[in-house]
Structure formats: structure tokens, C-alpha cells
Amino acid sequence: MKHIAKKRFGQNFLTDQGVIYSLVEAISPKLDDLLVEIGPGLGALTQPLLKKLNHLHVVEIDRDIIAWMESFYPKDKLTIHNSDALKFNFAELATLSPDHKIRVTGNLPYNISTPILFHLLENVSSIIDMHFMLQKEVVERMVAAPSTSEYGRLSVMLQYRLKMDYLITVPPEAFDPAPKVESAFVRCVPHQALPFPAKNEALFGKIVTAAFGQRRKTLRNTLKEYLDDAGFNAVGIDSGLRAENLSVEQFVSIANFLA
């Protein structure tokens, strides 16, 4: 199919067969998996996945691509959901599976990748694992360790829920059109039991957001609405540190102290 990539949908189509093979190997689909692919595009992942699955679900917003998919793929092998991934109910789809769990993959549009990740966090109890192609810089932030320049709100909020592995770096020339940045493939597996459970997850999210709101300022400044010196002493955290110095466990300890 000849298709002009649409900028508003953040379309960059994967074309490198060696990279595609590596991604499918990393996903390791099993015949009966309930797997959903976000943004299937021109089928770089869809076609090799279909060879290994009884059935595949795809979420696609582009009506031109949907029209092509409907004529190209056997209807008994593919269910097409014409939807914005940011609004799609992944938990509802999971009810079709015997264990009410799905696997998720996709070459995510880079312009909305972070909102999609946070949307999937809301459905995380219905997800076995997720494998995504993302901007390399985003993946580096996702897996970053404390006290590094990449570590931030995204790192903390995702690591609270997920174990993540940086798998493969993918160069721009693996895509058409080539993006201006390098890409990377990441595996995200929800923790079966949270390593550091927050008593109030909404409060935990507010603490993390406030702490990273002014990245160069110390916690004494960024969290002054929440903790005084006595509070910092009670949780055993130096108020002269910055947000990037705190582990997920330490952010949870602050939230649980305040809950």
C-alpha cells in the first residue's frame, strides 16, 4: 500500500526487516495470546505477529489505513478497533481473555507516547506485559536510576508500577519517513505485587509532580506545602536534596507519612 505518513498522527513506519525480526522475537507471541497492537500502520509488526497468533487486535485511528487493512487481512485473524489509543478501554478488551489479561505492543506515535503510557497505567491490572517502540530519550527516562539527568517524574511513576527493560536501540533509517531521533524498544511488565505500595496513590502522584515541578530546587522548596523540617526528619530524608536524588521507595515513604 502506498500511504503518505500523516504528521498529525505522528506516523513513522518501520521498514527494516532485521529490526522487525528482533522485535517479534522480543515479544515472543504465543498462539492463544490476546495481543493488542497500538498503531499497526502498514503492518510491519502486524504481519509477522499474525503468523504466530490465532488472532490479533489492533487499535488504529487513521481511516485510510483501516480501509486498507480491511481489504488486506482475513477478518477471522484480525479485529480492528477504530479508536484513539488515548480513549481506548484496554480493560474491557481484556474481558475477552479467559484470565482477563492482555498483552500490548506497538510503535507508539512519539508525539503522544507519554500520555498513552499513563493511560495504560490506568489499565495495568488487565495487562500481562507491554512492548513498545518509543523515542530513545523517552525509554532512557523510563528506565533511569536516581541521581541521573534522565531520572524524573516519568521514571518514578512508571517504575512504581512496572519493571522495565531497555531492549534494542533502533536507528532513524529503520523507518520511513526517518524520524529526526533514535528510537528504542522497551519491555514493561507490571509488578505482581507493588514493591513499595502507597496508601494513597493520588497523593503519591501529587508529591512526585510537585517535587519535579522545579527540578533545580531542593525538596525544602518544592515540597514546602507538604513537609516542614520536622517532617523531613521523620521520614529520614535530607531536605537539601533535589527530586532526582530520591528513589521510588523514598517518594512512597513521604506520601505514606502524609496519608
Structural description of this entry:
The protein is α/β, with parallel strands linked by helices. The chain folds into 2 domains: about 180 residues, Rossmann fold (3-Layer(aba) Sandwich); about 60 residues, Helicase, Ruva Protein, domain 3 (Orthogonal Bundle). α3 links the parallel β3 and β4. The longest helix is centred in the C-terminal third of the chain and has 13 residues. The protein is elongated, with a radius of gyration of 20 Å. The termini are far apart.
Task: Name its key features.
259 residues; alpha/beta; Rossmann fold; Helicase, Ruva Protein, domain 3; 2 domains; 7-stranded mixed sheet; two-stranded antiparallel sheet; 11 helices; disordered N terminus
Short description:
It catalyses: adenosine(1518)/adenosine(1519) in 16S rRNA + 4 S-adenosyl-L-methionine = N(6)-dimethyladenosine(1518)/N(6)-dimethyladenosine(1519) in 16S rRNA + 4 S-adenosyl-L-homocysteine + 4 H(+). The protein has about 260 residues and is α/β, with parallel strands linked by helices.
Q: Main β-sheet: number of strands, strand sense, barrel status?
A: 7 strands, mixed
SSE string, helix = H, strand = E?
EHEHEHEHEHEHHEEEHHHH
Q: Unreliable runs, pLDDT <50, ≥5 residues? A: 1-10
SS-derived structural category? alpha/beta
Shape: elongated
Radius of gyration: 20 Å
Mean pLDDT: 93
Helix content: 25-40%
CATH architecture of the largest domain: 3-Layer(aba) Sandwich
Which strands sit side by side, in order, in the main sheet? 4-3-2-5-6-9-7
Instruction: Find the CATH superfamily of the largest domain.
Output: Vaccinia Virus protein VP39
What oligomeric state is this?
single chain
CATH C-level class of the largest domain is Alpha Beta
What number of structural domains do the residues give? 2
Please name the CATH topology of the largest domain.
Rossmann fold
User: How far do the termini sit from each other?
Assistant: 55 Å
Classify the beta-strand content into a percent band.
15-25%
